[in-house]
Design brief:
The protein is of the alpha+beta class. The chain is 27% helix and 33% strand. It has helices at residues 18-27, 58-63, 74-83, 130-139, 156-159, 173-177, 203-223, 236-241, 273-281; strands spanning 7-12, 32-34, 40-43, 48-53, 69-73, 91-96, 102-109, 124-127, 145-148, 164-169, 180-189, 191-196, 225-232, 250-254, 257-267, 285-291. The chain binds 1-O-pyrophosphono-5-O-phosphono-alpha-D-ribofuranose and zinc ion.
Length: 297
């Protein structure tokens, strides 16, 4: 195969992951010129291009080396890993991305009084995920029939072609609309960055490393807050003890006030009013909670 010098990322052409995936890449400083056929998007600033495809095709494109990376649901990636032939390059989940959360679950008719996996023995379960369902059935020593369907899995029980289903659940609306209810959760899923286990050792590899660093920064920033406050030296310990997680705070002296310190701390998540009030009670004042825009560590 002809070697590429530009990194190529596969992502869903149109669907639940498309918008947040594009936003994430934009935050990483990547911009794209959309081509006429909208399948291939040329990257303008960095040597990174996009391929817009069906989500189920993404793992295969990476495994074949057509793309280096993919943004895809963990459900699709795991199913591929379980069902793809071993002659293909193994894939790995490089980063969880924190959006597109859903779960792969077994759902049964609402009127069924479900009380455990053994109740599925001898039943037919409709799914688009034969690999993940098969693995779960083996783990629970349940012998059930797997009815493979590419879509509209949720209507199978009503049509009489299956007794239960194994499908993605996000809000649960689809289940309710089809008089089904969740019985077992097989996999907690979200969008992930997928890549080959063997990364290229050339300019593409360097770009990939850079992209992963930016991505880590963007993901960390999304949750981070910078906390600024003043405290006197003798209340410092009490104040520090109350700081919500994160690395060691930075201390600066305050000009003309030898007893005072300015403290700066990166917090891993929200800082609530309740937390601020507690920290204040311990001796802090002049407190500010700031959002973080970019981070490079
Ligand atoms: C998934 C899944 C369900 C629905 C669940 O389909 O197959 O039909 O979402 O979501 P809910 O719990 O919020 O109702 P999706 O919309 O991704 O389309 P697809 O079946 O074509 O993949
Ligand atoms: Zn889909």
């Amino acid at each position: 195969m002809k070697t590429r010098d530009r990194l190529r990322i596969a992502m869903q052409k149109s669907g639940r992951l498309t918008e947040p995936a594009l936003e994430l890449l934009t935050r990483c400083g990547l911009t794209f010129r959309q081509s006429r056929d909208k399948l291939f998007c040329f990257g303008e600033g960095e040597p990174v291009d996009l391929l817009l495809v069906r989500d189920d095709d993404i793992p295969g494109l990476i495994a074949q080396g057509v793309c280096d990376l993919g943004i895809v649901g963990r459900n699709v990636l795991s199913e591929f890993q379980l069902t793809a032939g071993c002659e293909l390059a193994p894939l790995s989940e490089l980063r969880p991305l924190g959006f597109g959360r859903c779960r792969l679950s077994i759902a049964v008719p609402q009127e069924l009084d479900y009380h455990g996996p053994q109740q599925l023995e001898g039943r037919r379960i409709a799914t688009s995920y034969p690999g993940l369902l098969g693995e779960w059935l083996r783990t629970h020593a349940v012998d059930a029939g797997v009815v493979m369907l590419a879509g509209s899995v949720e209507i199978a029980p009503k049509l009489g072609t299956a007794d239960a289903i194994c499908d993605l659940v996000q809000s649960g609306g689809t289940l309710v609309a089809n008089q089904l209810r969740e019985a077992e959760v097989l996999l907690e899923s979200e969008a992930v960055l997928a890549g080959s286990l063997t990364l290229p050792v050339d300019e593409r590899g360097d770009m990939l490393e850079l992209l992963l660093k930016r991505l880590d920064g963007v993901i960390q920033v999304r949750e981070s807050r910078l906390l600024l406050l003043q405290t006197s030296r003798h209340t410092l310990e009490a104040v520090t003890r109350l700081l919500p997680g994160g690395p060691q705070p930075t201390l600066l002296s305050v000009a003309g006030q030898p007893d005072q310190l300015m403290l700066q701390a990166l917090c891993a998540g929200e800082v609530s009013w309740r937390q601020l009030e507690e920290i204040k009670k311990a001796g802090a004042r002049e407190m500010y909670v700031l959002p973080v825009e970019k981070m490079l560590v």
